[in-house]
Amino acid sequence: MVQGMEKTALFIDGANLYSATKSLGFDIDYKRLLKEFQTRGYVLRAFYYTTLVEDTEYSSIRPLLDWLDYNGYSVVTKPAREFTDSQGRRRVRGNMDIELAVSAMELAGHVDHIVIFSGDGDFRSLVEAIQRKGVRVTVVSTMHTQPSMIADELRRQADVFIDLVDLQSRVGRDPAERSGRMQEPPRFLERRSPAPGPDDDLSDN
């Protein structure tokens, strides 16, 4: 690490980020995302949080998680909860807010800057608690959707708010690559872009 560089930790709410970028019409290239924030400071840790449906033989998110695990991210998962709605349809609900919050508070004493990729207003009190420890907090989400994906109270609490629209050119995946390689498994040695993101049903939103 270059002396004087800001130590940063990234905390990605996987389902929330996926929903936001899907609404904006682009995919995240997680290799580019990590490189983007490495140019801004020393990235001590990069966490990705998501729930998994355990009883399915294959999930579209598993290739992404494998790729992330091999390419500089710490992946945190837990089983999703299944339930039947009032129309008798099977639904899946998952939430990683507690896990993300605990990890962020634990790491706050070791970094200068925490970046949270989520628009969930429940994180407002977490951001405030981290700031009380003297750590700067950036929130990444978007206001360019209807309704907005970023809770107003979270945006106001953050030291810096970055709209995903402003990051798209630097962290988005090339649409041509998406159409040509969407069905291919990730090839870890080639450090290729990840497979498609998580399923909508894994989001609480």
From TrEMBL:
> In which residue ranges is the amino acid composition biased (Basic and acidic residues)?
172-181
| NYN domain sequence ranges | 7-164
Endpoints of the signal sequence: none
Q: Which Pfam families match?
A: NYN
Q: Which InterPro entries match?
A: LabA, NYN
Show the segment(s) annotated as Disordered: 172-205
Q: What Gene3D superfamilies has UniProt attached to this entry?
A: 5'-nuclease
PANTHER family reported in the protein's UniProt record: SLR0755 PROTEIN (PTHR35458)
Q: Give the protein name, as stated in the record.
A: NYN domain-containing protein
Give the species this sequence originates from: Ancylobacter radicis
Q: Where is the organism placed in the taxonomic lineage, from the top?
A: Bacteria, Pseudomonadati, Pseudomonadota, Alphaproteobacteria, Hyphomicrobiales
